[in-house]
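assembly run, all chains below
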Amino acid sequence: MGTQAVSDNGHEIVRLEDARKTYQMGTEQVHALAGVNIVFTKGSFWAIMGPSGSGKSTMMNILGCLDRLTSGSYHLDGKDVSRLDDDSLSELRLRYLGFIFQSFNLIPQLTVQRNIELPLYYLGWDAARSAERAKALGEDVGLGDRLNHRPTELSGGQMQRVAIARALTNDPQIIFADEPTGNLDSATGDQIMQLLAKLNEQGKTIIMVTHEPDIAAYAGNRLHMIDGLIDRIETGAHETKQYPKEHLARH
Amino acid sequence: MRQSNILRNIWLGIENLLLHKLRSFLTMLGIVFGVGSVVAMLSVGEGASKKALEQIRKLGSHNIIISSVKSAEEEQAQTNITRSFLSVYGLTYEDHRRMAESFSHIKQVAPVKLNRKDSHLRERGMELRVVGTTPVWFELVPREVLAGRVIRQADLDKRAPVAVLTEFGARKILATEAVIGQTLRIGSDEFEIVGIVKSESGEAGSIQIPDQQVDVYIPIEVMRRYFGDVYTKSSSGTQEREKVELHQIIVQVDNAGNVEALAAAIERMLERFHKKKDYAVSVPLALLKQAEETKRTFNIVLGSIAGISLLVGGIGIMNIMLASVTERTREIGIRRAIGAKRRQIIYQFLIETVVLSTTGGLIGLGVGALIPFLITYFSGMATILTLNGVLLPLFISMAIGILFGLYPAINAANVDPIIALRHE
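ok done. output:
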């Protein structure tokens, strides 16, 4: 318990070794990650689950290069990133990672297209090429006619599609999804999950945090956390899964 | 690539500011007034300098003007003894000779005798100011010669009764006729008009400029011989008689740097030979100093106002940008999560601030250009808008944007993306 490692046959993309993250809360030390060992392979779809305070958000932040470990190591695609500085982590996020959030996190004053373009701006693409790519991605997620709208004019499902398009703009190795359906009704949530499942089928590694078993069921691997440690790992279809496999395959 | 990136950043900054038009405008006001007063200050100062230079030009920048004045005691004595009193005062021929001989820095000296005489050209007449002088006058008080010639050394040697009129005087006296060669009667003596020169009028600062519009110039030797050194003035029943040898001595100094020292030396020399202070030494160059002094005072006053406005404006901008950073914490978090580096966030906010302050600066420039226009319109004070007067305030407003934008921008960059993404 807590120290088990999972290794698939595929090429590994994420490796945590004795990963620890400690926060100081007043006089008390909180061990958000208390020594995690895990390996994710390329092309896998993981759901990280657990009650609040279990360390799943910290896990997500560490894996997403938004935060650094207190001790232990994190190898991303074979490279030790646990000691990198802020600029280097930004560079990693920019080139290899994509993010989807519960509250969509679109920039309200920018149009849909400009939101999708955002990573390209930091990648230094010129305006014309960026616009072209953003349009293509917007159409891929079914929002070709909403490109010039502001996020506030969109429904929740549409906003999350924009967020997914934006997460794909830099053609990332890993997509991180933090409670991606948390603010959506179940039907819309399922549509979003199907979109993610499709991306996974296309070869993207997806790491998702959720506390809903129905949503977690879309992931091939489910990692349950408690008190900063891995509690158990499930692999394969879940018994509570509502959608049969062939339903997914249609998309 | 880099350049287009900057332009894109600036455009993004403008877009963001346009989202809150009223807020942006109010934020700019401090800068608008600050820059406006800087522009106004510079153009008023520039106008004052130009006016001073113009005055110096009229007076001659290398000149020292020494004039005869009736001393206070003399004035007193005259009122006590009313009739047939002859007051003797002023500069003497000897003063002129001494000056011309004793100072090495003096280039030229023009002695001047003045008198007012009714003059006639046939039946037309007017009172002219008769100026008896030497050819040097026309070098020290350089005015355009419109017709004929000025007085020559030969005129002095031959004691030729020739006269040079001013354009104004010539018009008055003869309307449109050609005056050259005509005979002008000054008092009861006849002179041949040989030339017409332009004239300046009025005062330059505290100094009366040497020439007047109603001047007629004749050789000093002729004047001395025809009219003598004693002048009779009749006023309200009393008759005043004065003996003045020279009314003015105009000295040209070889170098502007020697003007002040020479003026002091002349003053010392005159003090030695004159029992009473019946002379006054004026230095046109001192006017320039006086103008510079005024300009400096003006600059300090307006500069402080401008400085305070700019400071307040800068603080206002900083305040709003800090609020904006808080308001846009989530946006910053999103950008950071996507991969923006700290310095790119700094850059974004800094550009927004600079766009804001520079726009304020541009508006301020408009306001500032209007103020000198109004000053000129209502007070007649000369104002000049120079390129520097435009570029400096713009540069200042940009610098303010950078100065006061840096802290909010650094604040923005230090936002923790994890916390920012959860920010409501």
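The mean pLDDT of chain B is 85.

The longest strand of chain B covers residues 106-121.

not gonna interpret more than that til we talk
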